[in-house]
């Protein structure tokens, strides 16, 4: 054991293998005279005259090791408060890594013994940046496509009775089949449970709607009630699209062509008789802008498909199809020196309005 490795642990920079090494050292070797020398070096550096003697330090360390290695774990827990009281007094003047390590071990006994397990199941997070899509392959072989601005949290390895992930945004899931361990997508209020299937989930935090579209296989849409019980909302069949409204709890279901719900993973933007408000929301999310729609053009709807088109090209094509005009508004400089999002106003084309009158 080295002083550098102990300091690395205290600063939370150890690998899982190094954590295992430190735990083994503490359980089996920390009371050896060679290990005490690590503390004595720093003690000589930090000690002050007439505060505490070397003999008292040595006695203190012996008492700590006695508590850690001789008594039963339950006894240590019962006497933790008294032990921590006199250790904390000594720690005020004994600034040594070994003592700090031992103090941390006593006060965080349960967490320490589970350090290695915690590292192995630590969750990861993948974020699809604005303007691009991301593909993630999970440890079970499942593949997830993430749409613009989406986040997926998942464990390095799936433990327990299910394979759980958390989604914010939109994801297209190709789930590896495992009848013994269902795959569960958590969106905050709604869970989508599957065994091995292909489906799409749209759950952006700013949207009032959470939707699920099943391509093949079978999924179950569930809701966690206030008492913790699970309520089945809908069991989907292929080509079925289900929407859940957050504020009302209303559920809508339909059988239709699913292409418009999943075309985004192939770089397509599909609108089928969608209002200009819906178009503006998708474009805002896709290009990280704020699009404001004037009430004078609310009635316009669009059926069109765009393939990897830039924002202003899309707006130009929309203005050709309907009598609208768009313009970029000046950005506002924030107090920290950054600028606000690009804002775009869509309004009725004034020339077209004049002709109508």
Automatic annotation (TrEMBL):
Gene3D superfamilies: 2.60.120.1440, 3.55.50.30. Residues 268-327 form the Protein FecR C-terminal domain. The chain crosses the membrane at residues 83-104. The keyword NADP does not apply. It holds the Pfam family FecR_C. Keywords: Membrane, Transmembrane, Transmembrane helix. Residues 129-219 form the FecR protein domain. The keyword Transmembrane helix applies. One of its GO terms (molecular function) is sigma factor antagonist activity. It comes from the Bacteria. This is DUF4974 domain-containing protein. It comes from Mariniphaga sediminis. The lineage of its organism: Bacteria, Pseudomonadati, Bacteroidota, Bacteroidia, Marinilabiliales.
């Amino acid at each position: 054991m080295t002083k550098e490795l102990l300091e690395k642990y205290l600063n939370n920079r150890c690998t899982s293998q190094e954590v295992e090494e430190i735990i083994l050292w503490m359980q089996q070797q920390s009371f050896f005279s060679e290990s005490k020398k690590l503390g004595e070096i720093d003690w000589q550096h930090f000690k002050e005259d007439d505060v505490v003697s070397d003999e008292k330090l040595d006695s203190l360390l012996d008492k700590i090791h006695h508590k850690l290695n001789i008594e039963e774990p339950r006894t240590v827990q019962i006497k933790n408060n008294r032990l921590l009281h006199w250790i904390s007094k000594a720690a005020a003047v004994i600034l040594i890594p070994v003592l700090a390590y031992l103090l941390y071990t006593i006060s965080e006994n349960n967490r320490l013994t589970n350090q290695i397990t915690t590292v192995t199941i630590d969750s990861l997070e993948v974020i699809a940046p604005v303007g691009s899509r991301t593909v993630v392959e999970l440890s079970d072989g499942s593949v997830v496509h993430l749409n613009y601005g989406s986040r997926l949290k998942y464990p390095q390895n799936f433990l327990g009775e299910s394979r759980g992930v958390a989604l914010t945004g939109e994801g297209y899931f190709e789930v590896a089949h495992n009848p013994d361990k269902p795959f569960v997508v958590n969106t905050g209020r709604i869970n989508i449970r599957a065994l091995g299937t292909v489906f799409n989930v749209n759950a952006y935090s700013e949207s009032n709607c959470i939707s699920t579209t099943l391509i093949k296989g079978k999924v179950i849409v569930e809701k966690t009630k206030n008492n913790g019980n699970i309520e089945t909302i809908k069991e989907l069949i292929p080509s079925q699209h289900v929407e859940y409204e957050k504020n009302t709890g209303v559920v809508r279901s339909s059988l239709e062509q699913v292409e418009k719900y999943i075309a985004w993973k192939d770089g397509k933007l599909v609108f089928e008789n969608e209002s200009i408000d819906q178009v503006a929301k998708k474009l805002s999310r896709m290009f990280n802008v704020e699009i404001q729609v004037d009430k004078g053009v609310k009635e316009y709807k669009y059926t069109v498909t765009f393939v990897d088109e830039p924002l202003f090209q899309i707006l130009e094509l929309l203005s050709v199809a309907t009598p609208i005009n768009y313009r970029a508004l000046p950005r506002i400089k924030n107090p920290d020196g950054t600028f606000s999002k690009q804002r775009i106003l869509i309004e009725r084309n004034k020339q077209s309005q004049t002709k109508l009158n």
